Amino acid sequence: MDVHSLDLMIEYSYPLYRPPAEADNIIIQATYGCSYNNCTFCSMYKTKSFEVRDIEDVFRDVDTLAKLYPDARKIFLADGDALALDTNYLLKLLSYLKQSFVKLGRVSLYASAQNILNKSSQELEELKENGLNLIYYGVETGSDTVLKKITKGVNQSEIIESLNKASDAGLKISATVILGMGGIKYSDEHIKESAKIINETKVNYLSTLQLGLEEESKEKFYKHFSDFEMLSDTELLQEQKKFLELLNPTNKIIFRSNHASNALHLGGNLPREKDRLVQELEDAINVGEMAFVPRMFRGF
Prior knowledge:
Low-confidence stretches: none
Number of strands: 10
CATH topology of the largest domain: Transcription Regulator spoIIAA
Shape: globular
Distance between the termini: 19 Å
Strand order of the largest sheet: 1-4-5-6-7-8-9-10
Helix content: 25-40%
Structural class: alpha/beta
Order of helices and strands: HEEEHEHEHHEHHEHEHHEEH
Number of helices: 11
């Protein structure tokens, strides 16, 4: 489902982002922008301020989309971290979605550690019981040093606490780690501590993507991370290999590394297919650039 064709029917506020897995699903903007919006590496919502939409306006979008796509089964709530919304607002919206889309099976949204920690366990459980199924969560890195340099606003222990709080409430979690986030100097620390987060939590889906800095983000990024040096594609794949080698999850994780930014596309189930994934990375590293996705076909 093309969001630009939907824009002819409802009025989206751009830029509009959604996870790759939501490409064919309905997108409903309950908020504009990101409630935190201070991460130095991210330029997604720098052109707009965080705003909570009037719920009646959101309901009108739901009505329009329900008439056009009555059999829709999956809905993504935008923008940057809709879990920042007041719980009562979310419960009203979830109820309206359920009555409007009779075949609805999944509602998802972006969420941050701050969002989750600001809600009680009871609130999260109530959201799950009323139809919120999946949260997309940017871990980015587990290194406290790097988290501070990218002004993420949380530390490793808070990330672990929030992820466990969400999974204990029954929410499924799709987590992302950014390869190269620590640069050359903090590469080992970045990978080791990121793996620790995954091993001490129960995420259901895990993705890795490669760091890319938009021009408008570079000045602020390097101001806070003055000793940053970008890794090469080979070094990024070596990071990914170390990351997978260190993973020992206690639950089944669906792993994907197929974001448009990645030099090598991978997919499998952890821990069952860990050895195969590591071997594929080793083979690609040994072959070199001929095995990588050409840069002209990569993006963010």
